[in-house]
Design brief:
mainly alpha, single chain, about 75% helix, elongated, 3 helices
Length: about 60
Amino acid sequence: MIEVGGIFSLILLIACIWAIVQIFQSRASTGWKVFWIVLILLLPLIGLVIWFLAGPRGSRY
């Protein structure tokens, strides 16, 4: 049986991986990319929220 915490952790892991891929694809400088990735790795939930609101956008736009 999968616990609710396990499902939440899996969703959070997938979101972190997706965010890191998006950061690599952005036009931000290397320093900013490192900053955002470290923030997401150290503070996954808070880092994702901050990145979603203020982080670099993808290169598709």
